[in-house]
Amino acid sequence: MSNIKALPLLEPEVPESAVPCCPPLTERPLSAGEAERTALMFKALGDPVRLRLFSLVASHEGGEACVCDISDVGVSQPTVSHHLKKLKEAGLLTSERRGTWVYYRVEPSVVAAMGQMLGSMR
After folding, report:
1. Cys-Cys crosslink for 35: which of 13, 30, 70, 85, Cβ 3.0 to 4.6 Å?
2. CA angle 51-42-36, nearest 5°?
3. pLDDT tens string 90-117
């Protein structure tokens, strides 16, 4: 008889700000809530260090990157952690701890929604 028990998988909590929210800008005006959630995402990308970290994760082989592979962006490690936290809070990145390292992945649904929102601007 085995003592192994299967545990259910938990879905990571996605902050409300991370939920893709908005139609294309040319479709209708944004509500106040939609504008706030969307501004949080763009504000997170408005910092050059955060944009660089986001780019490093997005372009990394396999679509995810260990923090050990992306921390050389010209700022201290605590500052890197702060910026990664802000990107996660904005819903742009997700993370998973594996042993002593944390791996980051771009949240594709949010990025796709942002692209769709801006894509219709011609």
Report:
1. 30
2. 155
3. 989 999 999 999 999 998 887 787 787 7
